[in-house]
Specification:
Blueprint (H helix, E strand, L loop, with lengths): L1 H11 L6 E4 L3 E2 L7 H15 L6 E2 L2 H11 L9 H11 L3 E10 L3 E10 L4 E2 L4 E6 L4 H16 L10 H4 L5 H12 L6 H17 L4 H20 L5 H20 L4 H5 L6 H19 L3 H14 L4 H9 L4 H13 L3
Parallel strand pairs: 1-3, 1-4, 2-4
Antiparallel strand pairs: 4-5, 5-6, 5-7
Helix pairs in contact: 2-5, 2-7, 7-8, 8-9, 9-10, 9-12, 12-13, 13-14, 14-15
């Protein structure tokens, strides 16, 4: 399941000319390392830069998990020769790596490097920024994102206003809860997903306008639902909760002055991929059971496209005659890997 999911994320931006991998920052604080903040810098920049049109940014789950799986020690996260090959293995054209230090009770000093992966060179000298571990943390991350875009200097990139994203205005406490939820929801692991669910709930309780955290709650609920569905368990409560959260996030986005659909449901790591995939699956199975195999194939193909790790969608698609042997084989491989 995990490999199918990671392949989806990797291919989701493969058509973009500019593809950016943003990795966890190296913590050079002398004492009390802060792994959540190390991940948090990357998560914040990914969330903001993912809003840029005509540019692909790999989701947090892919870059954070690949950093862990690579075995690269955290003290090498600011070393080009360590991180550029990892970015290249993902298919990235550019990599953003960073390093930070805590200065005083709330101060932060951090540096970033922007690597042209193909040319194996830095696009500029390391850039230095200052921030604080306060509620203005994300605003400073917005300024850093603008500096990154200026350095990339591509005429194909449409630089957006980040105000809509930053209007969520989560507290620093809520953001840290959110990052902890991301850390625990990188893979299909029921125990970790249950912990992530609690962290995302704390994030939305701390900042009720934190739409992105609501979407991650939906994602985790639908990941848990998929595990249970593949094991033949009842998922009605999980799906019902996800439906309520989806409506809440859309309503909140509308109140903030924009299109709820455009502003909250527009990138692949959100729960929308899983939620829509499930709806296509249910409709497809319904069509199949009433003998409408051509329509069933259409719906199930879309379910498989959105959620390639859904073994049941693949199995039913095989029954409609669509790439039957391949789909059934991959469905079997997925179910054999269930915990």
């Amino acid at each position: 399941m995990n490999q199918e999911m990671m392949n989806y994320f990797q291919h989701s931006i493969s058509s973009q000319n500019v593809r950016i991998a943003i990795f966890p920052f190296q913590d050079q604080t002398n004492s009390n390392p802060d792994p959540t903040l190390s991940q948090g810098f990357a998560v914040a920049l990914i969330d903001i830069l993912s809003k840029v049109q005509r540019m692909g940014v790999y989701p947090s789950m892919l870059t954070l998990e690949s950093s862990i799986a690579s075995g690269i020690p955290s003290q090498n996260y600011f070393v080009e020769s360590s991180m550029a090959p990892l970015a290249q293995s993902l298919g990235a054209t550019h990599a953003i790596i960073g390093m930070f230090q805590k200065t005083g009770p709330t101060g932060l000093r951090y540096f970033i490097k922007i690597i042209d992966v193909k040319e194996s060179r830095l696009l500029s000298p390391p850039q230095e920024f200052a921030s604080e571990m306060t509620d203005r943390f994300l605003d400073v991350m917005g300024d850093t994102a603008k500096s990154i875009l200026k350095t990339l200097n591509s005429s194909k990139i449409k630089v957006p206003s980040f105000e809509k994203y930053l209007e969520q205005n989560p507290s620093y406490e809520a953001f840290r809860y959110y990052v902890k939820g991301i850390e625990k929801s990188l893979l299909y692991n029921p125990a970790d997903l249950a912990i992530a669910r609690a962290w995302f709930e704390k994030a939305t309780a701390a900042s009720y306008t934190y739409t992105t955290a609501y979407m991650e709650r939906i994602r985790v609920l639908m990941m848990l639902a998929l595990i249970d569905r593949l094991q033949g368990k009842d998922i009605s409560l999980l799906v019902s909760e996800a439906q309520k959260l989806l409506q809440m996030s859309k309503t909140q986005a509308f109140k903030s002055g924009g299109s709820s659909k455009k502003n909250t449901l527009d990138w692949p790591i959100s729960g929308l991929r899983l939620f829509l995939g499930y709806e296509f699956y249910v409709t497809g199975v319904g069509r199949f059971n009433t003998g409408q195999h051509e329509e069933a194939s259409s719906y199930l193909s879309e379910a498989r496209r959105l959620v390639p790790e859904d073994a049941l969608a693949r199995a039913f698609l095989a029954k409609t005659g669509g790439r039957a042997s391949e789909e059934m084989m991959r469905a079997t491989n997925i179910t054999n890997c269930l915990p």
